[in-house]
């Protein structure tokens, strides 16, 4: 999609519904970084101190877990605080006559 057409996502109720669902599901979740998602990795590397990082969006160097809220913010630009806005937008876009 052309960058100047990016505003059209706000006309689609699925965009708001998806952000609300993701914000609800990932809230207060913690995901462990294991195996190949830790860098550096391999024989001879020990994950101690701040000498490693997780390759998942939203990770903090030196931590082996990623917060669901940080992942959504860094990876998709979604926030849990937008749930109310998203539900009202979906209601308005799908049921505009019922709001009269």
Structure description:
The protein has 100 residues and is of the alpha+beta class. Helices cover 34% and strands 10% of the residues. It is built from 3 helices and 4 strands. The chain has a two-stranded antiparallel ribbon.
Tally of contiguous helical segments: 3
Give the biggest sheet: 2 strands, antiparallel
How would you sum up the global shape? elongated
Task: Supply the number of structural domains.
Answer: 1
Return the average pLDDT rounded to an integer: 86
Q: Rounded to an integer, what's the Rg over CA atoms? A: 19 Å
The proportion of strand residues reads 5-15%
- State the strand order across the main sheet: 1-4
Secondary-structure-based class equals: alpha+beta
From the N-terminal CA to the C-terminal CA, the straight-line distance is 35 Å
Total number of strands: 4
Low-confidence stretches: none
């Amino acid at each position: 999609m052309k960058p100047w057409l990016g505003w059209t996502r706000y006309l689609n109720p699925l965009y708001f519904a998806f952000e609300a669902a993701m914000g609800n599901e990932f809230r207060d979740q913690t995901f462990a970084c294991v195996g190949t998602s830790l860098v550096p990795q391999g024989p001879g590397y020990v994950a101690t101190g701040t000498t490693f990082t997780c390759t998942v969006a939203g990770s903090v160097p030196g931590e082996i877990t990623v917060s669901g809220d940080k992942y959504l913010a860094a990876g998709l630009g979604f926030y849990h605080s937008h749930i109310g806005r998203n539900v009202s937008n979906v209601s308005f876009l799908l049921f505009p006559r019922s709001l009269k």
